[in-house]
Amino acid sequence: MSTTDTPETHPEPDGPRVDRRRFLAGVGLAGAGLAVGGAAGAGIGYAAASGGTDTDAEVEPFYGEHQAGIITRQQNSLVFAAFDLKDSATVPSVQTMLARWAAAASLLTQGKPVGPVESRPMTPPADTGEAFDLGAHRLTVTVGFGPTFFDDRLGLQDKRPAALQPLGQLATDTTIDPTISGGDVCVQACSEDPQVAFHAIRNLARIGRNVVTLRWLQEGFGRASATSTSQVTPRNLFGFKDGTANIKAEEPAVAGEWVWVGDETDQDWMKGGSYLVTRKIRMHIEAWDSDDITDQERIFGRVKESGAPLSGGDEFATLDFTAKTDGQPAIHPFSHVRLAHPDNNGGAQILRRGYNYTDGIDTRTGTLAAGLFFMAYQKNAHEQFVRIQNNLAQDAMNEYVSPISSSLWAIGPGLSKIGDWYGKTMLGNTP
Amino acid sequence: MSTTDTPETHPEPDGPRVDRRRFLAGVGLAGAGLAVGGAAGAGIGYAAASGGTDTDAEVEPFYGEHQAGIITRQQNSLVFAAFDLKDSATVPSVQTMLARWAAAASLLTQGKPVGPVESRPMTPPADTGEAFDLGAHRLTVTVGFGPTFFDDRLGLQDKRPAALQPLGQLATDTTIDPTISGGDVCVQACSEDPQVAFHAIRNLARIGRNVVTLRWLQEGFGRASATSTSQVTPRNLFGFKDGTANIKAEEPAVAGEWVWVGDETDQDWMKGGSYLVTRKIRMHIEAWDSDDITDQERIFGRVKESGAPLSGGDEFATLDFTAKTDGQPAIHPFSHVRLAHPDNNGGAQILRRGYNYTDGIDTRTGTLAAGLFFMAYQKNAHEQFVRIQNNLAQDAMNEYVSPISSSLWAIGPGLSKIGDWYGKTMLGNTP
């Protein structure tokens, strides 16, 4: 059986020292070629044959000031992939991959295949096809870079933002598995349909297969945050509403203050971008499930059913840390909501965008290997996430959770138009 | 922190030699208690607070001739759990667990919690809560028994159906992992929302925690079958429409002939039930993705985009095994559709109900650990699935797949009314 590649549909630049003008022209051509393939070669967009839910045909805008998938109303499914550069990777090959990814993502997020399936009998289909009858389902593709991307392999040390200093080992981080942490490049795919998100990651991995290898991959379900006031606050696997006070898409001023990188950055290419912290947090579900409701609520600081703070009111009531119950603080000093609250962290807020996960069972114990794939976007993770997380070292909830993965990513700004690509403002002038 | 259990909400029968009449009364009480807890104690059904998709409030009937989740229009998400009996398990403790599972499933499938959350301050919540704001999303819970359930531990050897003979090692089964195969009891939870399915399995595992332990657990997404003519034929991770000729809910005569156990059984308790084969089939995606479209289509016997047979017509056209292309059979002798077709298997058909899966990456190779969690229901797996699978030993697709899990389950008939429970017609008179 043939293992022929498809150079025709994935044109390479001429070589590692490709002239910038010619390289960009080539990228444009690649993007256009893919677009033509998607629209004409494959004949139909994915949405055409759908007979499913209302979200099938919903499309999130791809071009814009910021990358989609950050403040975007959070979708129900996540597939997150971390990649390592191959030893053979060069700046031109990385540029080409990122340009192809942009062209592919611009199609995928419209519910289109990345290229034709049937047009060339003796070559593999350009698109793997498993999302062929599905719509976009609000797919977003968000691309970023880990600290190691800027080490001496590609010679990009000068492009590394100061804020991309690795998180290091925080006080709670005694159980981190380095094999599922870090990586050179990341792709976050979110959609209302898990197959659409999986398809996006698979096809980007395929497009990048000569440049990067998969380092780890995480699926998530049951969004564990709300990023829009139009969304009900969801529940984590402890059964509590989580992130009631999250930053919302309807609060652009708050997002401007806490989410988007601005003039304070030492790297212009990060303006309009954000820093993403990903943490895989194993929850000890069976232990939690044997704890009484009063203790569970004391740990969270909220009522389980309603989500209301223990100081009173409804879910969205302001937390009153001075309120007393039977002479004791109504919201315990070591409760999660209190330690995480901006008032106790110099005002710091983060945009949470996590997902619940399960990896099946922990075969050593027969318990559910499940928890939260925490994701948070912010202007500066060291001043926001790290500050809050250090405060959470006292969190009573720590008895029931173990962080097993921890990573920091620089998520560049949005792509402005066709021909733009991920990292272009960083890499576009690099020979 | 308390680790107190909740005996009040999970009443035990009096002991292992419990009188049958009292036991059944106790089960009825337990069921009623849970129902009251669900309706009154927790105050609201899950669906009440939902602001989500159209499927939120959709409920599949729980009581009926057959268990739901078999011929039921296939949902988008699966969580499948295999359990082993604890050494301490006895027939009465298993009876009680199965009765509680029935009571819980009757509530969960209506979008209700299995019990109250806030009513008893010093006890754990009866329901774990993570589906609290979600609807039923067409949840079905389907319970069955593996061959080992009937070994000498519980003394139920006489209740084992002849058709529950283990599958054994088939010709293609060189890579089966026994730790993710088999088990004494299984629960299949299907829903349009993965969090609802996860919640069901978690709460049943919790209810059964003194009787069974989790052996393995499998999540699935992107249903890889259609079980209703109202559904578009979905695609597996090879990008092909799969199961075009599947048995459909709208064909009760076909289901009667091939799916439901009838008078031929040696065990009356299985009448109206079915036998479920579960197979986890790792797909070597990267190898497949490098194969050319012509070869992919030759292996399947169908056109990738349309799903039409290579002998012509549309997706649902009858396969013509005599048709020729350039003097060769249009549908190759070793193609999947030909080898699996009823005409080449003595007419045998099966009801496919599989799901796509991914377990992240295979860390040994950096490739995607993804594939198909194959599930098929039938009257007799040895005469149907095994016959077809033996024919598929010649399947050209075998180069691209490795079965890693293989199990056979006896799925009893439906529950007829409140007070009925899983396996009651088998275990109700025991001891």
From TrEMBL, chains A, B:
Keywords: Heme, Iron, Lyase, Metal-binding, Oxidoreductase, Peroxidase, Signal
Compartment(s): Cell envelope
GO molecular function: ferrochelatase activity; heme binding; metal ion binding; peroxidase activity
Gene source species: Gordonia desulfuricans
Enzyme kind, highest EC tier: oxidoreductase
GO cellular component, one term: cytosol
Signal peptide feature range: none
Domain Dyp-type peroxidase C-terminal: residue ranges: 233-413
Cofactor note: Binds 1 heme b (iron(II)-protoporphyrin IX) group non-covalently per subunit.
Name under which the protein is recorded: Deferrochelatase
Co-factor requirement: heme b
Catalysed reaction equations from the record: heme b + 2 H(+) = protoporphyrin IX + Fe(2+)
PROSITE patterns per UniProt: DYP_PEROXIDASE, TAT
Start and end residues of each Dyp-type peroxidase N-terminal domain: 67-221
Similarity comment text for this entry: Belongs to the DyP-type peroxidase family.
Protein's GO biological process: iron import into cell
Keyword field contains Signal: yes
Principal localisation: other
Gene: efeB
